[in-house]
Write a structure and sequence with these properties.
This protein is α/β, with parallel strands linked by helices. 34% of the residues are buried.
Length: 219
């Protein structure tokens, strides 16, 4: 059995995270587990631990915007496999996740022992999806936008996510400890890369990569 050195788990649901870790820590006894509950925490972990062996990512972690976080990680940390762990189980969501570079997709309804098997398969270099998964036709528009998002730098991606949250240039500049002029310069570069004219169009564009609201009635 593979014993990875570091695994990052980015999920804001403490009960699920604790239940998952409670089982996995007993199997991965030599693994250092790094936890993030928001995109900001997750991005900091990626910077500080870019040698991690695996990422377990919830698509709905606060601050995320659809598949953009997955695309960003795969572009900037291509050596780090990502397993999506999600409340979504529909074929379209799984298809898009795999197209955008996920190494595995594990619905949260999956028994934890099976999640362990999925992680082992991915660590061995394989791909893992639910047994009943059937890939759907490719969405050319989403693929084009995904490539554009992947071309953004770390800082540009962070600013784009702040745009998506409705933050003003002044607020973003304060949070990132830079001038408003710097934010405007980044915004111009972001709009050019996404082939849009303003922040509204940018947010609409990445909306094509978004996912539907989760069904909290799922077991």
């Amino acid at each position: 059995m593979i014993q990875p050195e570091k695994i990052i788990i980015a999920d804001d649901h403490p009960l699920f995270r604790q239940a998952l870790l409670g089982t996995l820590k007993s199997k991965f006894t030599e693994t250092n587990w790094l936890e993030a509950q928001t995109i900001a925490e997750f991005e900091q972990l990626l910077v500080n631990h870019d040698d991690s062996d695996l990422v377990l990512l919830d698509l709905n972690i606060p601050g995320a915007h659809g598949f953009n976080t997955l695309i960003h990680v795969r572009n900037h940390y291509p050596h780090m496999p990502v397993v999506i762990v999600s409340a979504h189980e529909d074929q379209d969501t799984i298809t898009k996740a795999m197209e955008f570079g996920a190494a595995g997709f594990v619905p949260k309804s999956t028994p934890i022992d099976l999640i362990f098997i999925a992680i082992q398969q991915v660590l061995l270099g394989n791909v893992w999806v639910p047994e009943d998964f059937q890939a759907l036709a490719n969405d050319d528009e989403s693929s084009d936008i995904a490539e554009r998002v992947a071309s953004l730098t770390q800082q540009q991606y962070k600013i784009l996510m702040m745009f998506a949250q409705g933050m003003l240039n002044k607020q973003i500049a304060y949070d990132l400890h830079v001038s408003e002029a710097t934010i405007k310069a980044h915004a111009t570069a972001i709009f050019r890369k996404l082939n849009v004219r303003n922040r509204t169009q940018a947010v609409i564009a990445i909306g094509h990569l978004d996912i539907s609201e989760p069904n909290f009635n799922q077991k």
